[in-house]
Amino acid sequence: xxxxxxxxxxxxxxxxVEGLKATEEAxxxxxIMSNPVLPQDLLSEAVPGNIRRAEHFIAFLQRFIQYLMxxxxxxxxxxxxxxxxLQHLRELVFIEAKPLRFCSERLTSLVRTLELMxxxxxQPLQEVAMFATLVSTYDRGFLLILEPFESEAATVPNPxxxxxxxxxxxxxxxxxxRFSSIVxxxxxxxxxxMFPKMLNFTPVLQESYTxxxxxRSFLPMIVTRGSDQSQISSSFQTRNDPSxxxxxxxxxxxxxxxxxxxxxxFFPSYLYMESTLHVWSGMxxxxxxxxxxxxxxxxxxxxxxxxxxxxxxxxxxxxxGAILMSVARGKVAEGVDFDHQYGRAxxxxxxxxxYTESRIxxxxxxxxxxxxxxxxxxxxxxxxxxxxxxCLGRVIRGKDxxxxxxxxxxxxxxxxxxxxxxxxxxxxxxxxxxxxxMAVATAKNFLRTxxxxxxxxxxxxxxxxxxxxxxxxxxxxxxxxxxxxxxxxPVAARQRDGGNRAVGAQADEFDDDIDDEMMMLDA
Length: 523
Fold this sequence. Notes:
Layout: H1 6-18, H2 21-29, H3 40-43, H4 54-71, E1 78-81, H5 82-93, H6 97-101, H7 103-114, H8 123-137, E2 142-147, E3 160-165, H9 169-178, H10 194-199, E4 218-225, H11 242-258, E5 262-267, H12 270-283, H13 285-290, E6 294-297, H14 302-317, E7 322-327, H15 331-335, E8 345-349, H16 359-372, H17 376-392, E9 403-408, H18 421-424, E10 434-435, H19 436-450, H20 467-485, H21 491-497, H22 501-506, H23 514-522
Parallel strand pairs: 4-9, 4-10, 5-7, 5-8, 6-7, 8-9
Antiparallel strand pairs: 1-2, 2-3
Helix pairs in contact: 7-8, 11-12, 11-19, 20-23
Organism: Talaromyces marneffei PM1
Subcellular location: Nucleus
EC number: 5.6.2.3
């Protein structure tokens, strides 16, 4: 390769002597910023001489990889900061931090220069280079954790090296530096003051909005008691109690009887889901649920989960109905929509707290407390309710959709204020401290109401514009354009519009032809 690509390698060497300015210019034009993001001072420097030539760089990487292999031969867990890691690296194999900072860019340049095929074969090497760049670039906000076993239950040594990012502001900082105006929007940013603390920025404006609906199309409920009136919870003290698990199973069985089409159930973790399903199987609850709906389970394997999701959608479409058992932090909860018949009800069994014995989580909690003044309990509660809100939002994907949201855990009643505004304001006091029987009765009444005829015209004037409002906004839009053409400032028109500024901004999406807009509305 060296002889056949000598000219390419020499050309690359010349460019590297001049520095990484071309990379900086490419980033300025690129809509997607590279990862890891390099500091500005690093981009202005030339690549160190000991890794400019390809053969020198490969030898440098080999030494670094050999060092990592030696460090991973441990029998106990080790945690250390990035400066400590770099000091040990320098003392043992005499590798300085500066060339490490250029590893990611240098490897990318080499692969591009040689026009290598099968890029996926070099992915492990790219991960090592990215690790080298990150560990040598940031002296705070990261922690290295070396564990001798892949999991706590493992008995055969299989060491794992974690580079944990403790400071989310590191990833957000390049966005702030590059763009002058940033809008952070989501349906689960509650409480609003937590994100500015974690991302280390001062917001100019903070607003929380409710949903404008022509009818109450979603029913949030908090179930705290089972059919035997005993409290239900997934807390450590009661999570394996047979009575507690039986009440969870009875809740799911009762909803499987009355809810049409699809039901999505979220558990706090894969381990808890597996143990719960095992107990339900022994109690015969799963066999009874099978009489009403198909049961599918999400697994950590992406291919198996995709197949289960496809089968779930098929069962919902052909009238069989199905229940998808998922995990609050899994693939289904993060990015799969269950609109219309795919999700008529979502049930959160337990509060999805993180595993508090995780060393990475404990290190992050300590970092947030020391640097941003965020208490451990505040962050854990915020994170759990954010994931619970994400799960609930899977079933409402439009103003014509409807669904039932069930939070099954007594602790949700205390954390109601941490739910997003659009959910918390729709929870009635009579729907907070429910037993299983009361929740089923409330759900029946809701489904009966949703079965009544509802026309698209009923949205007009509430969650959508009437023809008169649409015409008025288009006329105002044309008047503003005429003012701009005459060189006038259209601010007065916006001021007269007052509270309708957001509405006027939405008119940008419409064409200038009023007749075409009216036809679109009628359609």
